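Final report, Chapter 2: Outcomes

The project's central promise was a pipeline that accepts a single protein chain and returns its three-dimensional structure in a standardized token representation, suitable for archiving and comparison. That pipeline is now operational. To close this chapter, we reproduce one record exactly as it appears in the project archive, with the input sequence first and the structure output second.
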Amino acid sequence: MFQILLTYFKIIQYQICYYFLGIFAVLDDLKNRDKNKLEIISKPGKVAVITGGARGIGLEVVKKLVQCEMHVIIGCRNVKAGQRIIRQHITSNASIAIYELDLKSFTSVKSFAQQVLQNHDQIHLLVNNAGVMFVPFELCEDGYEAHWTINYLSHFLLTELLLPALKRSSSTNEHARIINVSSCAHEASPLINFGSISNSHTYITNAAYAKSKLAQIMSTKYYNKILANTNVQAFAVHPGIVNTELFNGTLLKMTMPWILSYICKVSYKLFFLYTPLYLYIIYFFLI
């Protein structure tokens, strides 16, 4: 009984922490909104790879990359559904390829990377965008918890597999970029106990998400360290408060969805925060 009460207390504690982090993130975005780079610069012939590019934030990023005249490779679980969504939102003359990618499976990640490399010797931009948040406990086929697998491990594996192609595309005048779509939620992460990450008895979904995002940022720092003498750079980007399917498991979305919708609409109208991620990605890629 005590353990159950302690778990509920921790969940409430995390929820409060997340709300405060969200408020501070919006205020920080508001403070720095003048730094957004809005120009779209043509990059014909350049290749961008993005995970989860058929919905939410990823779809907005794809729209902007297409405007840059880049060839965009999208990884998503359901190729047919992805193709249908892309047809609805993207012009027919856009250069887009959609390959199957299930981030719950390392085998699928390897297959996706192999398919990309078979068709492209060089990759100029990798956007690790897909993710889950606050999902129930689940062990993926490789034995790791879902947040840890989807948000961190599979993207780390994909980056490793595509890194040679990123290096081949880069030059002193034009660096290749790795963009990890992170979150301010990493600041709520407790110390990571790697031995208990996939333990259902100690699982708290709020903590699992924060840990995966902290690991993602740590991996970004790791890549910048080992790639210091190359022309490949890695960035971690907090995308802002965006009303996408990612929020489906949150208390706010389940109990008062109109509040989240209102916050995002106000952010869009007043502060241009609704989908700021593509601005950062375009900015980092063009400088």
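Archive annotation: The first strand starts at residue 47 and ends at 51.
This record, like all others produced under the grant, will remain available to the consortium after the project formally closes.
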